[in-house]
Amino acid sequence: MKPTVTNLKKLEELFHQLSYTVRYERGNFQSGYCIVEHRNIVVVNKFFDTEGRINTLLDILFNLDVDPLSLDDKSRHFLQSVIKQAAVTDSDS
User: Fold this and answer.
1) How far apart (Å, rounded) are the C-alpha atoms in residues 51 and 17?
2) Where does residue 24 rank: exposed (0-12), middle (13-18), buried (19+ CB within 10 A)?
């Protein structure tokens, strides 16, 4: 996935549809992010650039139990393309 602001916005919208709030703040996170489980809040290190934010959100996304039926068509299609790209990247390495 190209590290563009447009792709970052698409990921943020996908998280919104999954009932997660994405916030960018300072913090002492070892991994660059933390997830507040019971409140569905994802806090990402605000000092990350666009690429770092996208990679962090992708890491989180792949660890969530996502129901594609809870997404609108546009977000579902975006999720499917992200999964396909990840599969291609994994098979290349």
Assistant:
1) 22
2) middle
pTM comes to 0.87
Helix axes 73-92, 50-63, angle to 10 degrees: 100
Q: Is the pLDDT of residue 91 over 90?
A: no
Q: What residues make up the domain containing 23?
A: 5-92
Pairing of strands 21-25, 33-36: unpaired
Number of domains in the chain: 1
Sign of CA dihedral 48, 49, 55, 61: positive
Contact 83, 48 (CB under 8 A): no
